[in-house]
Amino acid sequence: MDALLSPAIGTVLWTSIAFLVVLFLLKKMAWKPILKALNEREESIEKSLKEAEKAREDMANLNADNERLLKEARIERDKVLQEARGMGDQMIAEAKAAARVEADKMIENARVAIENEKNSAMVELKNQVATLSLEIAEKVVKERLSDQGEQEKLVAVLMQDVDLN
Fold it and tell me: CA–CA distance from 94 to each of 84, 102, 155 (Å)?
């Protein structure tokens, strides 16, 4: 049993030679392609990582650009709304001013019309008063002058008032 546990020198020698031959063959034929494949894989992974980092930076830049564009759009929207409000306020103010001017014109026209009507009524009233006064005077004069004595007395009074000089 001890013979099975202790290695024979010949077996160790031939096993070592076989290992070295396999190692030499692997180094010449397989080691370079395996290392080449590993290097290519490593370069591919590094390239993918760089591309992923670049894509992440591009996305960050795009997000920043989008935020900037959004901010500019909001500013522009606020500006347009403010201008629209200003124009609306201006239009309202102009409409109020135009309505005020129109109302003032209408009031002035009404005043002029009222003044004209008043003057017309005053003229007509004066004419009627004059007509009535003449009619009353005529009746009074006719009544007073119907008597001969009254006529002579009136002529005498009028003659005294007249200055013949």
Answer: 15, 12, 76
Name every residue whose Cβ is closer than 8 Å to that of residue 150 and which is 6 or more positions away in sequence: 144
What are the tens digits of pLDDT across the range 98-154? 999 999 999 999 999 999 999 999 999 988 988 888 888 888 777 767 777 777 777
pLDDT of residue 164: 58
Residue 153 lies in a domain: no
Task: State both tokens at 157.
Answer: 């009074």
CA–CA distance, 1 with 44 (Å, rounded to integer):
55
- In a domain, residue 26? The reply is yes
The total number of structural domains that make up the chain: 1
Sequential DSSP letters for 14-27: HHHHHHHHHHHHII
Q: In 3-state terms, what secondary structure has residue 8?
A: coil
**pLDDT, tens digit, 9 for 90 and up, residues 9-63:** 888 899 999 999 998 888 888 888 888 889 999 999 999 999 999 999 999 999 9
Domain span at residue 26 reads 2-124
Domain membership flag for residue 89: yes
Residue 14: inside a domain, yes or no? Answer: yes
Contacts of 145 (CB under 8 A, 6+ apart): 151, 154
